[in-house]
Write a structure and sequence with these properties.
single chain; alpha/beta; Rossmann fold; 3 domains; seven-stranded mixed beta sheet; six-stranded parallel beta sheet; 19 strands; binds ligand TPW; binds magnesium ion
């Protein structure tokens, strides 16, 4: 076995199911082995940001490793933003970059694709990954790969692996998976006892489930735990989509001033808020008018549990949830929660379309044809997604990068085989929409709902005086045919419904619905968000 095969087998054994990538001369020998060995399928895309987003989405939906393989310099550095997004949102992406051969590094010449030093790229990726290795020592390589992949999964954060191009075919031992570090049972017992006591004392405890619950594959157990404890569950904005397919007392999504008042009251009036795997970021919490006092909450994140001014280090989330389940009564408590109501029943008339109409149309569609996973970009489309029935969702709710939606949708279809819905604004589509051209080669057929307001509308809401937010009218519907899909432009609700019905029936080609929205027309959720944020900042 050579180094590349050893790495590819290790990736598969750690849960990777495919590789997204774009080769270059520093990566060609590795890509040849990817293709010839057939250990993992390879999907090439058109631009490295798309590679990074697709790998990230595949990791999120499959709860396993996502793999992004690129060439040195021009390739890898093109992916910095996507990997930073994965780092911020805790998605276990393995970045594999080709690199200069050991001999070349000694030539004294500057090499093409080199930024400052030959090591610059490694240094840059240090900042946005939790572990890194350059595989330049064949004896150490198996142990190094095992360590890096173990960290990727344990932290649920990206890692960086560089393969010097003259190392790819060197004979190498196979990678032996690292054993999980032991758990301090006494600390775990004490921590669980304290959490349960605090929840029992609280008059209105609430569980807020965050992305780590999904990253560590704990949705089923968390659903069970909340039923047994009688705890209503909310998700954060970032955690939206969690527990969608599970029997959980899910009330809705907490968005502070931007959310539904009953969900906001439930969370902000709780005297026992249990944040389980929740990223404590502004998009999740700064929207609170009453200012949740995070010191008074119970927080389990990043392998630690904090409450009452102290921290239990080294408590992995899965161990915590499993131990809690052992400690609570083994039957479900009878209690009911009031679930968020979603809009259904679109009037298929000649009226213009609003973002909330799109949510309504999607709800109607999923009621008739079954739920679909959604990949959403940043923009009003993501706020609109909050008005769609709970279903699997991948979206950059915290890091908020544009350009995620289309490639993430491709990653979802590659990883699950299920046809996704892609929600994307026109501004974001201008960034990465082109990647749809890769669908026909792989048989992907996402349905793309393009929220086309000819505008950077989210920016306009905060700064209406700036005319740079006006975008031109691009012929997105016409472009679809050239990219190997079908495109249609819709301006009325009747046209929207007809286009969605047709898209769902047409398999095998991507379906792009270019939905014309008037500038200034926002989803109900984004309207509440804007009004709330303005209200909060006026007070400050
Ligand atoms: C990679 C900043 C946040 S929202 C936005 C910009 C430019 C406008 C989005 O326009 P779009 O959607 O897609 O048409 P909508 O609903 O607002 O009309 N560059 C990157 N990411 C971000 N977040 C920005 C800039 C931004
Ligand atoms: Mg727009």
């Amino acid at each position: 076995m050579n180094l590349s095969e050893s790495l590819l087998h290790a990736l598969r054994e750690h849960g990777a199911r495919q590789i997204f990538g774009i080769p270059g001369d520093f990566a060609l020998p590795f890509f040849r082995i990817i293709e010839q060995s057939k250990i993992l399928p390879l999907y090439t895309l058109s631009h490295e940001p798309g590679v990074g987003f697709a790998a990230d989405a595949s990791a999120r939906v499959n709860m396993g490793l996502g793999v992004a393989a690129v060439t040195y310099g021009a390739g890898a550095l093109n992916m910095v933003n996507a990997v930073a997004a994965a780092y911020a949102e805790k998605s276990p992406v393995v970045v594999i970059s080709g690199g200069p051969g050991k001999g070349e590094a000694r030539s004294g010449l500057l090499l093409h694709h080199q930024a400052k030093t030959l090591d610059s790229q490694f240094q840059m990726f240090k900042e946005i990954t939790c572990d890194q290795v350059k595989l330049d020592d064949i004896a150490r390589a198996p142990a190094d790969i095992a360590r890096v992949l173990a960290h990727c999964l344990r932290n649920s954060e990206p890692v960086y692996i560089e393969i010097p191009r003259d190392m790819v075919a060197v004979d190498c031992a196979s990678v032996i998976r690292e054993a999980e570090p032991p758990i301090d049972r006494e600390a775990l017992d004490a921590c669980v006892a304290e959490i349960l006591a605090r929840l029992a004392q609280a008059t209105s405890p609430v569980l807020m489930a965050g992305v780590e619950v999904r990253r560590f594959g704990l949705e089923e157990k968390v659903a069970l735990l909340s039923r047994r404890l009688g705890l209503p569950i909310v998700t954060s904005f970032m955690g939206r989509g969690l527990l969608a397919g599970h029997d959980a007392p899910l009330v809705g999504t907490y968005m502070g001033v931007a959310g539904l008042p009953e969900v906001t009251r439930l969370v902000e009036n709780s005297d026992g808020l249990f944040l389980l795997g929740e990223i404590v970021c502004d998009t999740n919490f700064a929207v609170s008018e009453t200012k949740i006092d995070l010191r008074k909450t119970i927080q389990a994140l990043d392998g630690r549990v904090s409450m009452g001014y102290h921290t239990y280090p080294q408590i992995p989330l899965s161990a915590l949830v499993e131990r809690m389940l052992e400690s609570v009564e083994q039957h479900d408590r009878a209690f009911t929660v009031k679930r968020q109501a979603f809009p259904y029943g679109l009037l298929a008339d000649d009226a213009g379309i609003t973002p909330t109409d799109i949510a309504t149309a999607v709800n109607d569609l999923m009621a008739r044809h079954g739920k679909m996973p959604i990949a959403s970009d940043m923009g009003d489309c993501l706020f609109t997604a909050m008005e769609i029935e709970h279903t699997a969702l991948v979206a950059p709710g915290y890091y908020a990068t544009m350009g995620f939606g289309v490639p993430a949708g491709l990653g979802v279809q590659a990883a699950t085989g299920n046809r996704p819905l892609i929600l994307v604004g026109d501004g974001a589509f201008q960034m990465t929409g082109w990647e749809l051209g890769n669908c026909s080669r792989y048989g992907w057929d996402p349905i793309v709902l393009l929220f086309n307001n000819a505008s950077w509308e989210m920016l306009r809401t905060f700064q209406p005086e700036s005319s740079f937010n006006d975008l031109g009218h691009w012929g997105f519907a016409e472009m679809a045919a050239g990219l190997g899909g079908d495109g249609v432009r819709v301006k009325t609700r009747a046209e929207l419904k007809a286009a969605l019905d047709k898209a769902v029936k047409t398999r095998g080609r991507f379906q792009l619905i270019d939905i014309r929205l008037p500038r200034g027309v926002l989803s109900n959720t984004l309207q509440r968000f804007v009004a709330g944020v303005k209200r909060i900042s006026a007070v400050k």
